[in-house]
Design brief:
Largest sheet: 3 strands, antiparallel
Structural class: mainly alpha
Number of strands: 3
Oligomer: single chain
CATH architecture: Orthogonal Bundle
Strand content: 5-15%
Number of helices: 6
Length: 144
């Protein structure tokens, strides 16, 4: 292995941590967090998701997600409902208050993406996103 500056996991973590720290600081000012945003963003894409699906989509462990959703429910941002097709399954829905918060966060999230991708061409952005999804999927090989 060469120098740390050339080590891919280091570079990925460094970039992600820098974006996350700044974004989280800005989220705290409006009463949210990066994890709250991930849940709201996932529900914005598809309301009524089950916890397992949300955990996978947001990359938040189920136990952490459960506590987070408990707090989000207390804050009136989301509500749990029994799935009509499967009484054991619980789905999560955004409330009106949750949608208002989401609408406040979207421009911030879009700005962070724009700043992070400054100077990249449309093609480079597409390649980068595809490569990151592929890197993530490649890690399944270690789950065995």
């Amino acid at each position: 292995m060469g120098p740390l500056e050339e080590y891919l996991p280091y570079l990925l973590n460094r970039a992600g941590a820098r974006i996350a720290a700044a974004f989280n600081a800005e989220m705290r000012q409006i009463g949210a967090s990066l994890q709250v945003w991930r849940v709201l963003a996932a529900l914005r894409e598809q309301d009524g998701r089950r916890m397992g699906d949300l955990s996978k989509t947001t990359s938040i462990e189920v136990s952490t997600l459960t506590r987070l959703v408990d707090n989000m429910e207390k804050d009136g941002l989301v509500v749990r409902r029994r799935d009509s097709g499967d009484a054991r399954a619980i789905s999560l829905y955004v409330t009106r208050s949750g949608r208002r918060l989401t609408q406040r966060i979207v421009p911030v999230a879009e700005r962070y993406q724009a700043v992070a991708l400054k100077g990249f061409t449309v093609g480079e952005v597409a390649v980068l996103k595809r490569a990151l999804r592929r890197l993530y999927d490649n890690m399944d090989a270690l789950d065995g």
